[in-house]
Amino acid sequence: MRVAIAGAGAVGRSIAGELLENGHEVLLIDKAPTAISVERVPQAEWLLADACEITSLDEAALQRCNVVIAATGDDKVNLVVSLLAKTEYGVPRVVARVNNPKNEWLFNESWGVDVAVSTPRLMSALVEEAVSVGDLVRLLRFSHGDANLVELTLPEESALAGTQVGDVQWPQDTSLVTIIRGTRVLTPTREDSLEAGDELLFVAAQAREEQLEDLLSVRRKPDAD
């Protein structure tokens, strides 16, 4: 897979290193000469250019990229790069860094963004995830389909503890993708049982989040006689 990263700062270089270790081709783009540190990521391609300029993106052959990551420290730049990548070059997957949480609402498909990653929000979500049991925590927002990656740790009092995955009537537009149980990461099957303390990761439509939290968190009251 070929990936172009706009922004060769600490964030961009870190992403590039991870992708290279996983066997992908990576091009780092930055307009600041001081950011071009080939020796830090020698396996990557480097381009000294303004990623907001069409001529620069032509030189980068963006149409050959499977993914573009807008990872600069400037939200305006990340939006422009995302829009150009999607509309001018038809890049299948565009991921954009959100620096200011107040700008999150802009990072959607109208600006060419498939996945928006807000570092401040992600950090706060991870803190919540570490201390919350029974509360739904939003980890990541996907622009297409208005879906989010959410997590909930199943509490002891949940009515679903001991229930098989296939027997649960999950809300519409909701998919259980992973069960984290202790040190194990499980791909759920219909026969797997949910256990108290399981960390459950879902991709869910935002409109279904409250319904999902209610289903998992509260022990149902017994039916009246």
TrEMBL record:
<dbReference type="InterPro" id="IPR036721">
    <property type="entry name" value="RCK_C_sf"/>
</dbReference>
<protein>
    <recommendedName>
        <fullName>Trk system potassium uptake protein TrkA</fullName>
    </recommendedName>
</protein>
<keyword id="KW-0520">NAD</keyword>
<dbReference type="Pfam" id="PF02254">
    <property type="entry name" value="TrkA_N"/>
</dbReference>
<feature type="domain" description="RCK C-terminal">
    <location>
        <begin position="137"/>
        <end position="218"/>
    </location>
</feature>
<dbReference type="InterPro" id="IPR006037">
    <property type="entry name" value="RCK_C"/>
</dbReference>
<keyword id="KW-0630">Potassium</keyword>
<keyword id="KW-0633">Potassium transport</keyword>
<dbReference type="InterPro" id="IPR006036">
    <property type="entry name" value="K_uptake_TrkA"/>
</dbReference>
<feature type="domain" description="RCK N-terminal">
    <location>
        <begin position="1"/>
        <end position="117"/>
    </location>
</feature>
<dbReference type="InterPro" id="IPR050721">
    <property type="entry name" value="Trk_Ktr_HKT_K-transport"/>
</dbReference>
<dbReference type="InterPro" id="IPR036291">
    <property type="entry name" value="NAD(P)-bd_dom_sf"/>
</dbReference>
<dbReference type="InterPro" id="IPR003148">
    <property type="entry name" value="RCK_N"/>
</dbReference>
<keyword id="KW-0406">Ion transport</keyword>
<dbReference type="Pfam" id="PF02080">
    <property type="entry name" value="TrkA_C"/>
</dbReference>
<keyword id="KW-0813">Transport</keyword>
